[in-house]
Amino acid sequence: LSALPTLRQVYASGLSISPSPRYKCLPKALDLLTIWKGDITELESDAIVNAANKSLLGGGGVDGAIHRAAGDELYEECKSLGGANTGEAKITRAYALPSKHVIHAVGPVYVKGKEDEKAQQLASCYSASFALAVQNQCKSIGFPSISTGIYGYPMADATHIALDMTRKFLEGPEGAMMERVVFVVFSEKDKAVYEDLVSVYFPPE
Ligand code: ADP
């Protein structure tokens, strides 16, 4: 985790800045945010978030990768959770993963015409995940781009929500305990979306 560049370092190396920031600079965010292209199962963090489904028993995409890498014990613990509703999150241990906890957040399946409802559910995944991180003394957390794979959420819209909810958390009373937030993207294309939008929510000084 300490090897990954922070947003401050990325700005210093010339990342382009949005002409229309939505907020003022939040200096501490520059030192704790990272956009990292990689496999979330390799992240060594207090918590990684899983883009789970309502069963919480594993599935495709990042969910499948996390269950494979964590091992059968994760599945056994997940069986005891009794599932979760869309927008909710539940926490488990991380077993063979290098992280300590997995926060299983159930993202919405994107449906055109229900944008507001879906946006609220996706936002809730982020706030619920941060709340569980705080309750479990997790000072570092890595998020995949929830719902933007099999669940079909448009990447840019989902990224706005991820960044906005992170901003709100970091500004709030519980944000003070967080030391690292990593947005784990799985392709160069997704990385470009995060790098394009990050300065709207986290402008440099
Ligand atoms: P959902 O069902 O919520 O859409 P997916 O797993 O299909 O979940 O996709 C969510 C995001 O996770 C996508 O952007 C996908 O590219 C990404 N992804 C898939 N595998 C991994 C992985 N091992 N590490 C990080 N991100 C991943």
Automatic annotation (TrEMBL):
Instruction: Give residue ranges for domain Macro.
Output: 20-202
Q: Which residues cross the membrane?
A: none
- State the signal peptide span: none
Q: What is this protein called?
A: A1pp-domain-containing protein
Species per Swiss-Prot/TrEMBL record: Calocera viscosa (strain TUFC12733)
Report the portion of the entire protein shown.
135 to 339 of 343
